[in-house]
Amino acid sequence: MKRFALATVAAVVAMAGPALAQDKPVEIKLAHWVPANHLLASTGFIPWGKSIEAASGGSIKVTIFPAQQLGKAADHYDMARDGIATVAYVNPGYQAGRFPIIAAGELPFLVDKPGPASQALDGLVPPVRRARDEGRQGLPDARARRHDPLQGPDHRPGADQGMKIRPANGTVGQMSRRSAAPACRCRRRRRAMRSRRAWPTRSPFPWNSIISFGIDKVTKFHTDMRLYAAVFVWAMNKPFYDGLSANQKKVIDNHCNNEWAAKVGAAWGDAEDAGREKLIAMGGHTMVPMSKVQIDAWKKAVAPVYDDWVAGAGKAGIDGKKALDDLRGQLARTGGAY
């Protein structure tokens, strides 16, 4: 979330010419940890990189390193900070407690449509910038992505007691504890779900990723509700940005804004949501619908997680209640509210 620039990408492309051609060639090493064929590659990483290359007149090249090629998933923020990667795909929730403010986007029953929700979450940047260890370091975008379905045969809150849960982030871990469900941090979701020691197991996951990660092979029951969201940012190495020419910085600024947050969030979110129909078409998968009464029961069970977040924000020197109200206001404005 480097800084906001209002110029459109088209305007930047129109500038690509002799002036940009004089810039020193540089390479962005974009590291991520999802499979190379993941939807995020075709809807996010690749279009973003190609647009930067075009807008810079070819002076900035983007090379993508997928599937943890440069480091483990939980290490990607530090990889960008230390220059191992130029840009890294980061799930702040993989280091629970380190990024307490942006974790607001992970709260249950808060966000709905991924594109508008991502745009709203990106608007939370000003208070994030003031928080310890959450200062902007060239983050191209913050995207909220729902992990809608909860895999498991029973959809009641607390029904997972005695099961092993693979939380997608620290907030989901808190939710599991609050609903009396023991959490386990399994390195490999599919391996854990196949393991007799780990079964029965639940794992919240976005629809199409259930297929791309092979989870569809080992689970057939899906609680069909929008439970929480996972937050992702693309972190850029600050010395790299500082070393760019003025023209190149402008290109990066125009690819690190609220517009791109909304664009990638929407493209990836819509593609993920399409996975639900794919699973139904496969056959053998049970979608468990949720009534309003059942969802209200879930909301009541996980309500203390909001108090936990406000308390954590306070320890970081932020008025958590105000920040949460601001985020809700942004969600209402963009249409991303639950």
What does this structure look like?
There is one protein chain. With 338 residues, the chain is of the alpha/beta class. It is 43% helix and 13% strand. The protein is built from 16 helices and 10 strands. It has helices at 9-15, 18-21, 39-55, 76-82, 114-122, 125-130, 170-178, 189-194, 207-212, 238-242, 246-253, 258-273, 275-282, 292-302, 304-315, 320-334; strands at 26-31, 60-65, 87-90, 142-146, 150-151, 164-165, 201-202, 221-224, 229-236, 286-289. The protein has a 5-stranded mixed β-sheet, sandwiched between helices. Strand 1, helix 3 and strand 2 form a beta-alpha-beta unit. Helix 3 runs antiparallel to helix 12 (258-273). The longest helix is centred in the first third of the chain and has 17 residues, at 39-55. The protein starts with 8 loop residues before the first helix and ends with a helix.
Main features:
about 350 residues, alpha/beta, five-stranded mixed beta sheet, three-stranded mixed beta sheet
Any chance you could write out the topology, listing elements then pairs?
Blueprint: H1 9-15, H2 18-21, E1 26-31, H3 39-55, E2 60-65, H4 76-82, E3 87-90, H5 114-122, H6 125-130, E4 142-146, E5 150-151, E6 164-165, H7 170-178, H8 189-194, E7 201-202, H9 207-212, E8 221-224, E9 229-236, H10 238-242, H11 246-253, H12 258-273, H13 275-282, E10 286-289, H14 292-302, H15 304-315, H16 320-334
Parallel strand pairs: 1-2, 1-3, 6-7, 8-10
Antiparallel strand pairs: 3-9, 4-9, 5-8
Helix pairs in contact: 3-12, 5-12, 5-16
